[in-house]
Amino acid sequence: MSLRIYNTMSREKEVFESLEPGKVKMYVCGPTVYDYIHIGNARPVIFFDVVRRYLESTGYEVRYVVNFTDVDDKLIRKAEQLNVTVPEVAEKFIDAFNENIEAIGVHKASLNPRVTENMDEIIAFIQELVDQNYAYENGGDVFFRTNKFTDYGKLSHQNMDELQLGIRIGVDARKENGQDFVLWKAAKQGEIYWESPWGAGRPGWHIECSAMARKYLGDTLDIHGGGHDLQFPHHECEIAQSESLTGEPLARYWMHNGYIHINNEKMSKSLGNGITVNELVKRLKPAVIRYFMLSAHYRSPLNFSEETIAQAENSVDRVINCVINLHHRLSVAVSTDDEETEALRGRVKAIKEQFQTKMDDDFNTPDAITALFDLVSETNQHLQRPIVSAESLQLLVDTFESFDQILGLLPALHKEGLLDADVDALIVERVEARKSKNWARADEIRDLLAEQGIVLEDTPQGIRWRRK
Predict the structure, then answer these.
(1) Binding residue per annotation — 457?
(2) pTM for the model
(3) Is 238 annotated as a binding residue?
(4) pLDDT (tens digit per residue) in 173-214
(5) Which positions does the motif 'HIGH' region occupy (predicted)?
(6) Structural domain boundaries, residue 74
(7) Is 237 annotated as a binding residue?
(8) CA angle, residues 81, 83, 87, in degrees to nearest 5
């Protein structure tokens, strides 16, 4: 089965073919760096990380660009509040963004261009639009003529006449048309600015991505992604700007992830129910955050609650404990003539095919996770056998690692050994095993903990543990 992607433009799943064989050019709209990213921002960060990982696992060379909007009204207001400069605000929250995505196991993009570092290209892009009569200046601002781009509205499937009716009269008298949008903003007194042919100012939001995508990836991208809320107006405006200038499609495939709700309510500042990733990583395992984000199809809404997080924690613990047990068993296994290995190989092959089929179906991560749990069940059953070969165990380890290369749910296991929560879970399991007189399992857990440098101590208050 070939990879198929749901294209927002066509509203259909389409077979994926990159513009250049073996290479993928992917642009995903990044954060406006005036604060810590919230979990709504984290969903595309994690999902498109998985898209990139999967494409690379199938042999593509991926050039992945995520921009930073480092000058904007929000940054200007934040700088005033903190009594610092706009670049200082941007630097603080770019550093925080990088720390947060590393904490949740996200690989850094190939490139993170900043608006302020690409001002010459942005101004030149606007000038070309002015020269070709797609844009006009009025009062130091420059606006895009939407009625000159006949396909305006094609991504979000909105009708120009209906859009016009929805616009309040007199929003900006300098606009020729109510739908026209700003490309360049004249600077207000005391604001950060750059010199341009239209006077001192700074770019509008939409033009930034068009200019940087063109500079770093060319006229046509393979994949352009972002949250559902960016379809209109942001991506619609990008299309109008870029395609007016180049005459080429801005992107072959448009991908948009769904919203996140908090306790079944829309996340919003007015409700005060936003949760930042900076807060979340202090109380949850990275794998739990990733699992939660991938547990629903990326185009579907996702609800954050204590219940859904508890479910994610239980699921992650089940996977981690299985893999811990598998590694321990492998560490003491020897090569044997195990007739079960070939049969296991066939069952594992079917699970791998199931995993790939689901990922090929528009990156269906919840069903791919189902395949992962089929592997967990197969592994647990295999580990119940009194004698297993090192070859069979290595096959299972390799399969877990191939899945994890894409989903990224086991970074702690590979890098840090057992986390405190993992140790606590194993001790609880050992106590239960002893109560049920499953001495073999109790001894197995004791040996595993010892191997990881965990010392158990019996006290009147119960079992305590420490690291050597």
Answers:
(1) no
(2) 0.87
(3) yes
(4) 889 988 999 999 999 999 999 999 999 999 999 999 999 999
(5) 31-41
(6) 4-280
(7) no
(8) 100
